[in-house]
Predict the structure.
Amino acid sequence: MSDAKIIDGKAFAQNVRARVAKQVQDLKDYNNVTPGLAVVLVGEDPASQVYVRNKVKQTEECGMKSLEYRRDPDISEQELLTLVYGLNENPEVNGILVQLPLPDHISEDKVIAAIAPEKDVDGFHVINTGLLATGSEDAMVPCTPLGCLMMLKDFYGGDLTGKRAVVVGRSNIVGKPMGALLLNESCTVTTVHSRTQDIEEECRRADILVAAVGRPEMIKKEWIKPGAAVIDVGINRIEKEDGKTKLVGDVAFDEVKEVCGAITPVPGGVGPMTIACLLANTVTAACRQHKIEEPKVD
Ligand SMILES: NC(=O)C1=CN([C@@H]2O[C@H](COP(=O)(O)OP(=O)(O)OC[C@H]3O[C@@H](n4cnc5c(N)ncnc54)[C@H](OP(=O)(O)O)[C@@H]3O)[C@@H](O)[C@H]2O)C=CC1
Ligand SMILES: Nc1nc(=O)c2c([nH]1)NC[C@@H]1CN(c3ccc(C(=O)N[C@@H](CCC(=O)O)C(=O)O)cc3)C=[N+]21
């Protein structure tokens, strides 16, 4: 079998950002609106710092306003909630992202619930979760699953109807919304997790396999149906023999690419698309808040 298509998430994301930048220009020119994204980062986790820096940079490159709120890890839950309430009221802010995870003394559920659903560009609020689950177009869709779906639709020429999809992982931020999105696309969806009896067997049936587990290179060649599309959400930092660290996904890329039809690499796959979709969601949120139609660009 010929080698798999390596899906270039970085290039894909660049295209999405170029479209977002055009939309932002239109909004400025015709509606006098500049979308604004507020990112809240609590604590000093180095990986989170990198993501937040990338988000801020790319938000500005697309012509949007970026507001950054860094807080010490000992901030109280109440203080963080007060910050969120203020952002809900701030007309310059169309999107709010509170970087997860939060320190243990703060309830993530409470903070997510405090975000105004129309500004919830992560799509984590139960209102948006419910809208997605009921197939409503009004949902703010979580960025990572949305990015995965865009790449899958591109690979399949737009239609996923009837495909067998297996999602590995059932977190609220990736696995569950990914399953809901694929179901809305008329896939036959199976979600597997740490209590699944025979994961390997389930995975082998998949035309579409989405891995969101957080276990380095867990998914092996033998688990893959020949020709399947494999989307690797995992971001795992592992130590190499020389003591340096490197990023690997949840899929054993080098061996899996010999059997699958398409695969996303790590890095350069889902990660860049997540940020691009965040920017796209911010434009959507701004348009809805201003009650204007989203600019159509090619
Ligand atoms: N590229 C990107 O943009 C993003 C990447 N990520 C990455 O994706 C990965 C998953 O993230 P997230 O969903 O937040 O992770 P969570 O830790 O919240 O969820 C992991 C899921 O995987 C399941 N799981 C864990 N171990 C196994 C196992 N051995 N066999 C089967 N299932 C297992 C868990 O099952 P159970 O529920 O039974 O415990 C759980 O449902 C991480 O590597 C994360 O860094 C996350 C967000 C964005
Ligand atoms: N409220 C919230 N929303 C999130 O969307 C969110 C979050 N919290 N917490 C953490 C996870 C993780 N996440 C990533 C985003 C981009 C890359 C990314 O761009 N990765 C690059 C590599 C970056 C590197 O080198 O470290 C790549 O895969 O090519 C990765 C991971 C968003 N998350």
Q: What stands out?
A: The domain at 143-267 is CATH 3.40.50.720 (Rossmann fold). Residues 50-51, 54, 97-100, 122, 143, 235, 247, 266-268, 271-272, 274-275 surround 5,10-Methenyltetrahydrofolate (ligand 2) (CB under 6 Å).
